[in-house]
Design brief:
single chain, 2 helices, three-stranded parallel sheet, alpha/beta, two-stranded antiparallel sheet, globular, 33% strand, 5 strands, 97 residues
Length: 97
């Protein structure tokens, strides 16, 4: 991460996953990162959760995969072409008028 980048803890809450307790931490970065710092950010996470609706290609999901991180993405979009079951999960979605 870029030196001087402020990281703010936004929320913590307990969750149940496969019967075990896990701690979920969401962090909000309020400064821009240098381009060469972005791979370190992806590698610092366990998984990238990238729901999207209007994104044309969803480049962040591809970048996370290139850094060896699995992704959770919205089903039915551009990521269908490059997120197989071996490296990510698709969340079913539908349009609601």
């Amino acid at each position: 991460m870029k030196k001087g980048c402020q990281v703010t803890l936004v929320d913590q809450f307990p969750a149940q996953v496969d019967g075990g307790d896990v701690q979920v931490v969401v962090q909000n970065l309020d400064e821009d990162l240098a381009f060469d710092a972005i791979p370190a950010l992806y590698r610092a996470c366990d998984v990238l959760v990238q729901p999207y609706r209007g994104e044309g290609f969803c480049l962040p999901a591809l970048e996370a995969l290139a850094c060896g991180r699995p992704v959770i993405v919205t089903d039915g979009g551009s990521t269908d072409d490059f997120v197989p079951a071996e490296c990510g999960w698709r969340v079913p979605s539908r349009r609601v008028p």
